[in-house]
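Progress note, project year one: complex with shikimate-3-phosphate.
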Amino acid sequence: MQEFLVQPVSALRARFSVPGDKSISHRAAILAGIARGESTIRNFLPSADCLYTLAAMRALGARIDPLEELPGHGPVALRVSGTAMQLRAPQSSIDCGNSGTAMRLLAGLLAGCPFESSLHGDASLSSRPMGRVIEPMRAMGAQMDALGESPGCAPLRIRPAALKAMRHRMTVASAQVKSALLLAGMSADGETTVVQPATTRDHTERLLGAFGVAVRVNGNEISIDGGSLPMACDFTVPGDLSSAAFWFVAAAMMPGSRVVIRDVGLNPTRTAVLDVLRRMGARVEVITTHPDGEPIGEVVVEGAALHGTDVLKYEIPNLIDEIPAIAVAAASATGRTTIRNAAELRVKESDRIRSVAANLRAMGCAVDEFDDGMEIIGGRTLLGAELPSFGDHRIAMAFAIAGLSAQGSTRILDTACVDTSYPGFARHLDAVLRGCSDPADFQLNPIPAA
Ligand code: S3P
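Model obtained:
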C-alpha cells in the first residue's frame, strides 16, 4: 500500500508548475473527440480520471495519438482525430473509474446517440448520486436508467433516444450537471437552456467557444443549439489551480514561506480559494500572463500568522474542491473558521465533511461537524498522526500538507488515489520535504511518445 511519510519543515520556498487542469482536460478530450478534424491538446492531465475519459472517447471512435508522455502515467500532449459528432457504439461498458466528471459528462454526450451504451465506475463512484443528471435527461426524452445497488446510482444504461430541446432549471449548483445538459443539448431538436442556481465553473462554455460552438451566456442562463458541430482546434490546458491550492495552503501556513506556481489556470469561477487565503492573512499576488480563453498566470503566496474566516455562501461552488485544503489552513489559523452551505461535500470522492473532521481531530484540532459543513477551532499546533486517505485524493494531499507544519511525523495511508488528479504530487512533496528550491527538483519530465 502506498503511503506518505511527512516530517515538519520550517518553510517552503520554491517556484514550479503543477500538472494540467483536471476539469479542462476531461472537456478537451470530449470536445476534441466529437469535433470535426484534428485537434492537438497540450499539457493534458495524464491522471487516472482523465485517462478514463480518453479511453472512453477512443471506444466511441475518436483516434487518439499521444505525442508526449509523462513516464508511468500517460500522455501530456496528444493529437485527436474527432468523430464529427458521429460516435460509434462502444464494444463494452465504459469504465469511468473514480471520476464523477467522466460519468456525468459522458452520460450527457451519450443520451442522444443512436446506440445503447453503459457507464460504470469504482465503488466510490457507484455510490454517488446520478439522479441529478438522469432526471433532466429523461425530461429531454433520454432513455437512461440507474442500475446500481443504491437507488439513483451507477452503472447507468443509456438506450437510443431522440432528445427534445428544453429549458432546465437546475436544483444543485453543479458544473457537471450543467455540462451534461449542454452536451446533450447539442443533439437535441432546438435550443436547450440551462439555468443554474449559482455560478459554477464555466470551462465547458469556454471550451465550446474555443471549438467554435455558439454558446449564449446570460448571467446564470446558458443556451446551446441542437445540431452544433465543434471544429477541431489546438488547445493548451492551464495548470490545475486545485492542485496548486495544496502548495498555496502549505506556504500560507508557514511564515517565511514563499511559493510561486507558474502557468496555472486563473478562471474566475475557480479562484475563490485565493480570496479566502487573503482574508485569512496570507499575502497573495496574481499575475495574469494569458488573459484570453482560459486565463493563465502566476500566483505567489507568502506565509503569515493566519486567522479564521467565514467562507461565504456564494464562494462555495467556486472552491468546493479546495475545502479540504482550506480546512487544514483553518486548523493552523487562530480563531474559528466556518464553512456552511457545502452539503455537496458529502457526495464527493469521500464524504469530505466526515473525512476532514476525522483527520483534523486525529491531529488534535477541534471541529464541529454540521450536515452542510463544519466549524474549525484553530490555532493549536497540529500533532503528527497516522491518517487514512478515505481513498480520496484531495484528503490524502490536504493532510500531507497538514503534516508539513505538525509536531512530529505524519503518515498518510493508502495514497495511490492521489493519481486521480495529481500525478507527480509525491515528487513535489519529496522536494518540499528536502527543502529544495531549484525548479529542476520539481520538474516532471515528459518524453516523446514511442
Ligand atoms: C467538476 C465539478 C465539480 C467538482 C469536480 C469537477 C467538473 O463537481 O467538484 O471535482 O469538472 O465539472 P460538481 O459539478 O458536482 O459540483
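DSSP finds 13 helices and 24 strands in the chain.
The first strand starts at residue 3 and ends at 6.
No further modelling is planned for this target in the current period.
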